[in-house]
Automatic annotation (TrEMBL):
Superkingdom per UniProt: Archaea
Basic and acidic residues composition-biased segments: 1-14, 46-55
Region ranges (Disordered): 1-20, 38-77
Upper classification of the organism: Archaea, Methanobacteriati, Methanobacteriota, Stenosarchaea group, Halobacteria
Record-given protein name: Head-tail adaptor protein
Length: 110
């Protein structure tokens, strides 16, 4: 699990990081999807290219890390006073990734 700030995430996502408007909508909706292009995702092994979704599921079942790209399930992204957790990683047909994120409830200081 990684914990990233907004600036660190922007560096990982390359030339098109999520904008202020994206984060404002994500905070309001309490969830969002971050999409990344195939060139941002690290190359997998030869078997991964033949059936990448199956290979990723098999790696996860065995507990072996794989090429999820810049984020993985369980990673946390801090945006100002808010935090999002990556709840799912989906591979696109083109080889990119979609990261489903959900707002984490703030801790109560009571």
């Amino acid at each position: 699990m990684k914990r990233l700030g907004r600036a660190e995430l922007a560096e990982r996502l390359g030339p098109r990081p999520p904008s202020d408007a994206f984060w404002n909508r994500a905070i309001e909706a309490e969830r969002a999807v971050i999409g990344v292009a195939p060139d941002v995702v690290e190359e997998g092994t030869e078997g991964d290219r033949e059936n990448p979704e199956r290979a990723r599921r098999n790696r996860r079942r065995r507990g072996i890390p794989g090429p999820d790209g810049p984020l993985s399930t369980g990673d946390i992204v801090d945006v100002g006073d808010h935090s999002f957790v990556v709840v799912a990683v989906e591979e696109t047909e083109a080889g990119g990734r979609r990261y489903r994120i959900e707002l984490v409830e703030p801790r109560s200081d009571d």
